Amino acid sequence: MSRNTINTTVSIMPADALFLSWATGINASGLFREALAEQMAYRDIDRDELSTLTEEALTDTDRDLDDLLEQTSSMEDMNALLEADPSTD
Q1: How many CB atoms lie within 10 A of CB 45?
Q2: What is the pTM of this model?
Q3: In what helix (H) or strand (E) does residue 78 lie, and over which residues does it extend?
Q4: Are the beta carbons of 88 and 61 closer than 8 angstroms?
Q5: What pLDDT sits at residue 1?
Q6: What φ, ψ does residue 86 adopt, rounded to 5°?
Q7: What is the pLDDT of residues 27-77, one digit of tens each?
Q8: What distance, in Å, lies between the first and last C-alpha atoms of the chain?
Q9: How far apart are CA 31 and CA 48, in angstroms?
């Protein structure tokens, strides 16, 4: 199975783009990951647990990331999906 990083485009406000052009040392993708981590914490999602479950779903089943995106919308969905899959036993 191919392990690729997913790249996406994010729209930002003009003032933010201007600031980022001034502050060339800022890692915008790092800021994005930091904001995601804050939102996970706010929503009581354990990042390590999510990473473990995602890795398990992608390596121990025939699913790919598109399948996970279509079939899950919460940690409960992810756990149920893995529990229902006989290949993860």
Answers
A1: 14
A2: 0.72
A3: helix 75-84
A4: yes
A5: 46
A6: -65, -20
A7: 888 888 899 999 999 999 999 999 999 999 999 888 899 999 999 999 999
A8: 20
A9: 19
- DSSP string computed for 2-46: ------------HHHHHHHHH-TT--HHHHHHHHHHHHHHHTT--
pLDDT value of position 3 = 62
Structure tokens at 52: 């473990």
Long-range contacts, stretch 79-86, CB < 8 angstroms, 24+ apart: 79/53, 81/57, 82/53, 82/56, 82/57, 85/60, 85/61
Six-digit token pair at 47? 């990042």
Query: Which of 6, 79, 66, 67 lies closest to 36, judged by CA?
Result: 6
